[in-house]
Every structure is written in C-alpha cells, then in structure tokens.
Amino acid sequence: VCEKVKLKGSTTYNEVADELVAEFSSDPIASRAAFQGGYMPGDQEPFDQKNIRRRVYDALNVLMAMNIISKEKKEIKWIGLPTNAAQECSELESEREKRLERINVKKQQLRDLLLQQIAFKQLVERNKTMGSVPATNALISLPFIIVNTEKKTVIDCSISNDKTEYLFNFDNTFEIHDDIEVLKRMGLAFHLEKLEDGQTLDRQALDRAKLILPEALRPELEEMVDEKDIKVLPVSPRKSRIH
To answer: Pfam families attached here (predicted)?
Structure first.
C-alpha cells in the first residue's frame, strides 16, 4: 500500500484497493462488484475480496497516523517516510549550508548592483556639470565594452548584414572591459569596489554614496563596509579617497 501511494503521489482508496485486487484477479471490476454484493449466491470468489480491501483501509489509516500520507475527502497524498534524527539533522544542515551559499551569492549580486547605481548617477551628475554638450561623435552610449590589446595585434572583424553580430579574431591576447568597470576606474563609485580589509574610507565619500541609494538599501552599503573592517575617517576638506 505504501509503495503504491508513493508511486502515484496522489490517489484514492478505491484506486489503491482496485490495483491490489488486480494483482490477484484478472477482472478487478468484477472483483469489486463481488465485494459490493453484486454476485449471485453460490458464485465462487477466487480470493477473499473483503479481507484485501479491509487491509488496504487499515494500512492507509496507519500511514496517516505516522504522517506518511495525508487524506482530504477522498484524495490521498504522499508526504514521505520518516527519517531518523541523525539523518534528518544532517540533511537540514546540508540544506542550511546550501541556502546560506545562495544568500551570499544574492548579497554579492545586490552589492554589485548598488555600486552600478552609484556609478551611473555619479556619471549623470558629472555630465550635468560639463557646461557644454559634446559633439555627437564624442558621445559614448551605454552599455558599451572596451577591447584592449597590443598595438601590434592583428584584428579581423566580421559584421553581420543587420549589424547585430560582430565576430573578432585576434592573433594575440586581449582584454574586455565593460562599461561598469570603466566607470569604476573613473572613480564614479567612490572606489568602493576596491575596499579591502584594513583600508580607510573618508566619511564624506560614504555619506555621498549612501545618499545616492534608496533609503531602504543604504544599510547594505554600511554592512559591506563593516564586514571588511574598513575604518571610516572623519569628514576631511580634502578630496574623498581610499588610502
């Protein structure tokens, strides 16, 4: 009974009983009719129908009492076999480690997005203070990538007809830098991506970065600084920097 419910996942008493009856009879429908009294006196049953169905009913009750299955109206659902305490504890610890790892990955992704937002908004403010609009051919649209290689490198570039695909072949090593990396190197993220244990950071830079972010996300930036044991210096009249 247990194996049949486990295999089906969701079933009914009649379905389980009929299948078990079928294992002893070539005509389970007739066997069920016999159990319900739909046969003539004197007919010989190939086996004890009532006994099998009663045992199925009893077995289901035991499984429900052990919380291995659940029953709602006529539907019976598989929950799972119980495990010993040591095994269950080990499985929970393993699941905990996996979830903590996923949380750390998500946290790092969030922090990367925070630095991106800081860099983008700093770029907007920088462009506002330029005073004049650069020529169209001097503008670089976002997103972009920069490919860096030696001057002697031979580059073969093929472009699709609709200009949506570019294929580059280099005969030497090269580096690819995306727009976010370039903006960070320009200092538009206050060099927060370079934070390492034991470094110092001007309070002014941290406060400016926090003001750029939504209020609900500012504590995450503070936590990032605290986790790396960064020493935040008092506000200085000099330009904010990391030493």
So the answer is: DP, WHD_E2F_TDP
DSSP conformation letters of 158-204 = EE-TTS--EEEEESS-EEEEEHHHHHHHTTTTTTGGG--TT-EEEHH
Residue 25: CB atoms within 10 A of its CB come to 19
CA distances from 42 to 26, 28, 34, 39 (A): 20, 19, 12, 9
User: Residues 6 or more apart from 194 whose CB is under 8 A from it?
Assistant: 242
Per-residue pLDDT, averaged over 69-98, amounts to 83
Q: Given a cut of 80, is residue 25 above it in pLDDT?
A: no
pLDDT digits (tens, 9 = 90+) for 85-107: 677 778 889 999 999 999 999 99
The distance from CA 85 to its chain's CA centroid, rounded to whole angstroms, is 28
Q: Would you kindly state where each structural domain of the chain is located, as residue ranges? A: 1-81, 89-129+141-233
| 89-129+141-233 topology per CATH | Butyryl-CoA Dehydrogenase, subunit A; domain 3 (1.20.140)
The pTM (predicted TM-score) of the whole model is 0.56
- Over its C-alpha atoms, the chain yields an Rg (Å, rounded) of 35
Judging by DSSP bridges, how do beta strands 155-159 and 200-202 pair with one another?
A: unpaired
Q: Is residue 39 predicted with pLDDT exceeding 70?
A: no
Q: Rounded to whole angstroms, what are the CA distances from 163 to 63, 136, 138?
A: 65, 20, 21
Tell me if the domain spanning 1-81 has CATH number 3.30.310.50. Answer: no
Res. 240: pLDDT tops 50: no
Q: Which two three-digit tokens encode residue 47? A: 């086996």
* Rounded Cα–Cα distance for residues 166 and 173 (Å): 18
Task: Give the residue-averaged pLDDT of 185-200.
Answer: 82
